[in-house]
């Protein structure tokens, strides 16, 4: 399939971090960019760490790669020795034009997915991720939106039904798509609460603001509290494409 | 002349059968790329590079040397520092060109071994490691002097010790710094950035006031004195002594493998830090000699700047400069220990030192052996307490390195191997590298015989080590 969405799966490869159960199946239709990274302190040159750990890390990467390939995904891999994990992850997202990043967590059986829709911005990428990953799966997809104060119910419905139509066009069974609108709530708290009954969450990355510097990105906060895997759809990178 | 293809890949093995690591397949702005999709992230930006250069350099020239330099050269010590700066610049330019073509860990050692052959590389590489060891020891003794001065300021004096208190304190700081690097506190580099900024702010304020004062703006006459009060020759010997203050840009090259956008940031960090530091040095010596006169300044010794500050701004000034001196000597010593450890890594990667020398500690993820190979000999040298000899030996070893780096540029440009593709090419070729080589080698002539003898002995031992341990090693570019 040509429209496999590229999904980054970052793994701290030498820290015993592993691919949780169900994740390879979740990404069966994705183009997985498997990023094994090893973080070293500043006083250690990355090359020095490579000399000592490359063999061990490569062997581990082979195992992880075959997990995804056995599930049906196409896999591209990178092994990076770095002093700054975030920089490495950001660079890899950019270089491989990844649509989403997976924050891995176990999923027993993928039955329903929560898709948090923020607004029209970035909705194209969101649609590509959801349809690419779930068109062939049996899971139910719930499109979830927390309406703002100035937003009428009609606006919110147009937003979600537009996305639903788009997903249906791309091959997601319309019977499996549900929409849900909430209002008068803080979006973040609402999403965290709603996610409780779902097996996986797809949500957008938000723009960095002062609050995100203090409290972290909303998506990260969701990933921290939610017990299943979270797919964070990335903003369009400047200059990409 | 053309390089044989066979010389472009490393080969051979050392006494214990270890082989040099393969060269990376490429360098991007953010990474070094090895085969099989393995990448090394580059994480030091321009600011970090400048902080390493400035942080290493600014300590010695301002906080240890003014007194020593003034007593030897009189007010003309200003000129000594300016000469040092010009020479440093003449070398920093060729180094920048080499660095943009070969942005790898090891800096000067790497450039020379890849352009002039493994034997030169081995001598220079071992010399660079030990040169940094001597430099760190010198900075630590300076740090010891500052701590003693701080204690004196608050009324504590240490007496009755078999060694000088500054030596004892230098040893303690040496142990502490090595331990700190091994146990791996995060953010040591960010700390370095902060220290450098604080330092530059303090110095700028202090020097601005000092210059206004010295030029008589506040109605005070500066001490009238002949510029060449000690004659002209000491100007050059003093330049040789204080050249230790300019060793920092080479430290930028030792982390060349970790600098982002190396093509742009390496030349900027090296040339930029030399220019900034030279300016600060020249102004400092001018202010210092203006406020006291060279002779009295010389009597104050290693912490002369504190007295200058006291004279200008009273006790708060003294406290401020004491604090700055502590920060500066600390950051110089810290940066040098880290660079020395990287030199050991580069040598071990090329099988010129045992592979175990670059082992990484499993608990902390730090190169404990390499750091120990920096910290251990440093302590031995600190124990000698010989500030001037330590500084000169460090200068000697670095001057040899610098002269050879200029030669290396001439050699590689002549030979023009296919892999040599610098993005920064120096202006004034071949005059600049020729002048750089001649000036670096020339400064050596003005050094104390004892320092030259120690330096030559180190180089001879390095060569013997290479002959014994790694005669068969062939590195990229070796012919």
Automatic annotation (TrEMBL), chain A:
Classification via InterPro entries: UspA (IPR006016)
Family annotation (Pfam families): Usp
UspA domain segment(s): 113-233
Name of this chain's protein: Nucleotide-binding protein, UspA family
Organism of origin: Halapricum desulfuricans
Phylogenetic lineage: Archaea, Methanobacteriati, Methanobacteriota, Stenosarchaea group, Halobacteria
From TrEMBL, chain B:
Family matches, as Gene3D superfamilies: Amino acid/polyamine transporter I (1.20.1740.10)
Membrane-spanning segments: 44-65, 77-99, 120-143, 163-182, 194-212, 232-256, 268-288, 318-341, 362-383, 389-412, 424-443, 449-466
Subcellular location: Membrane
Keywords for the protein's UniProt record, in alphabetical order: Membrane, Transmembrane, Transmembrane helix
Principal subcellular localization: membrane
Gene Ontology annotations for the cellular component aspect, listed alphabetically: membrane
Domain Amino acid permease/ SLC12A per the UniProt entry, residue ranges: 50-464
Keyword Membrane set for record: yes
Region listing for Disordered, in residue ranges: 1-32
Gene Ontology biological process: transmembrane transport
Annotated membrane topology: Multi-pass membrane protein
Record's compositionally biased regions (Acidic residues): 1-11
Record-linked Pfam families: AA_permease
UniProt-listed PANTHER family: AMINO ACID TRANSPORTER-RELATED, INNER MEMBRANE TRANSPORT PROTEIN YBAT
Protein name: Amino acid transporter
Gene: potE
């Amino acid at each position: 399939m040509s429209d496999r969405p590229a999904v980054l799966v970052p793994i701290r490869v030498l820290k015993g971090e592993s691919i949780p159960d169900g994740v390879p199946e979740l990404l069966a239709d994705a183009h997985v960019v498997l990023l094994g990274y090893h973080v070293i302190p500043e006083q250690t040159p990355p090359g020095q760490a490579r000399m000592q750990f490359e063999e061990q890390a490569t062997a581990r990467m082979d195992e992880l790669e075959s997990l995804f390939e056995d599930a049906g995904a196409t896999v591209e891999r990178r092994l990076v020795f770095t002093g700054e994990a975030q920089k490495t992850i950001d660079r890899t997202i950019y270089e491989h034009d990844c649509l989403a990043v997976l924050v891995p967590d176990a999923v027993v059986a993928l039955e329903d997915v929560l898709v948090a829709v923020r607004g029209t911005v970035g909705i194209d990428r969101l649609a590509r991720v959801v349809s690419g990953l779930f068109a062939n799966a049996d899971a139910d997809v719930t499109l979830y939106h927390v309406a703002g104060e100035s937003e009428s119910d009609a606006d919110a419905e147009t937003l979600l039904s537009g996305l639903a139509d788009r997903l249906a066009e791309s091959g997601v069974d319309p019977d499996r798509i549900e929409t849900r609108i909430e209002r008068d709530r803080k979006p973040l708290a609402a999403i965290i609460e709603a996610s409780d009954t779902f097996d996986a969450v797809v949500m957008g990355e938000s723009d960095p603001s002062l609050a995100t510097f203090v409290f972290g990105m909303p998506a990260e906060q969701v990933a921290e509290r939610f017990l299943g895997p979270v797919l964070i759809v990335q903003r369009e990178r400047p200059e990409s494409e | 002349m053309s390089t044989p293809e066979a010389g472009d890949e490393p080969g051979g093995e050392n006494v214990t059968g270890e082989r040099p690591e393969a060269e990376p397949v490429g360098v991007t702005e953010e990474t070094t790329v090895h085969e099989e999709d393995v990448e090394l992230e580059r994480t030091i930006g321009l600011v970090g590079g400048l902080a390493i250069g400035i942080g290493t350099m600014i300590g010695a020239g301002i906080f240890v040397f003014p007194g020593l330099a003034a007593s030897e050269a009189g007010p003309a010590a200003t000129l000594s520092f300016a000469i040092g700066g010009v020479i440093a610049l003449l070398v920093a330019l060729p180094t920048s060109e080499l660095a943009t073509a070969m942005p790898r860990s090891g800096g000067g050692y790497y450039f020379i071994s890849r352009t002039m052959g493994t034997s030169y590389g081995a001598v220079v590489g071992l010399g660079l490691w030990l040169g940094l060891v001597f430099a760190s020891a010198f900075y630590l003794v300076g740090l010891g002097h500052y701590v003693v001065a701080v204690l004196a300021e608050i009324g504590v004096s240490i007496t009755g010790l078999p060694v000088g208190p500054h030596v004892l304190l230098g040893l303690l700081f040496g142990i502490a710094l090595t331990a700190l690097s091994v146990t791996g506190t995060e953010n040591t580099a960010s700390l370095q950035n902060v220290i450098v900024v604080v330092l530059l702010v303090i110095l700028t304020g202090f020097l601005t006031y000092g210059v206004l004062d010295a030029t008589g703006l506040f109605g005070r006459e500066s001490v009238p004195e002949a510029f060449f009060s000690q004659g002209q020759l000491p100007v050059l010997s003093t330049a040789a002594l204080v050249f230790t203050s300019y060793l920092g840009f080479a430290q930028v090259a030792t982390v060349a493998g970790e600098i982002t956008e190396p093509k742009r940031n390496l030349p900027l960090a090296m040339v930029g830090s030399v220019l900034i530091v030279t300016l600060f040095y020249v102004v400092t010596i001018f202010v210092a000699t203006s406020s006291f006169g060279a002779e009295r300044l010389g009597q104050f010794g290693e912490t002369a700047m504190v007295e200058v500050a006291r004279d200008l701004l009273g006790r708060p000034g003294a406290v401020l400069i004491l604090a700055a001196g502590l920060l500066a000597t600390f950051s110089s010593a810290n940066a040098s220990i880290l660079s020395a450890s990287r030199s050991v890594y580069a040598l071990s990667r090329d099988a010129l030192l045992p592979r175990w020398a670059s082992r990484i500690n499993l608990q902390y993820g730090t190169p404990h052996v390499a750091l120990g190979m920096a910290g251990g000999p440093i302590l031995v040298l600190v124990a000698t307490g010989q500030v001037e000899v330590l500084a000169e030996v460090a200068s000697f070893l670095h001057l040899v390195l610098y002269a050879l780096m200029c030669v290396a540029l001439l050699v590689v440009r002549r030979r023009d191997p296919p892999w040599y593709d610098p993005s920064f090419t120096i202006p004034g070729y071949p005059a600049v590298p020729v002048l750089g080589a001649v000036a670096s080698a020339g400064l050596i002539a003005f050094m104390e015989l004892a320092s030259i003898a120690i330096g030559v002995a180190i180089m001879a031992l390095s060569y013997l080590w290479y002959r014994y341990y790694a005669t068969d090693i062939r590195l990229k570019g070796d012919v």
